[in-house]
Design a protein that fits this description.
mainly alpha; 3 helices; 66% helix
Length: 82
């Protein structure tokens, strides 16, 4: 059975990149189109990572194999209702 560590590492990597882009945007010039697209991609990928973690936790709680959790498409995770 794998652990959640690789997912947490990916979340940390994405969060650092996101922070860097926000710092770049805060310099007064904002972000260019490519950087804004990347920021949007990061936010979607973070949502996917958190979704997989929630799936894994739910599968563990139900006595199922957490390794059967899978990333859902951006169209699915971006349309969740809060």
């Amino acid at each position: 059975m794998t652990t959640d560590q690789p997912i947490f590492q990916r979340i940390n990597d994405l969060a650092h990149e996101e922070e860097s882009l926000y710092k770049q945007a805060g310099d007064g010039d904002g972000l260019d189109a490519a950087a804004q697209r990347r920021l949007d991609e990061i936010q979607v990928e973070l949502d996917q990572c958190y979704d997989v973690l929630h799936q894994r936790q739910a599968r563990r709680s139900a006595g199922l194999d957490p390794d059967d959790a899978a990333a859902r498409t951006p169209e699915v995770v971006e349309h969740y209702q809060q």
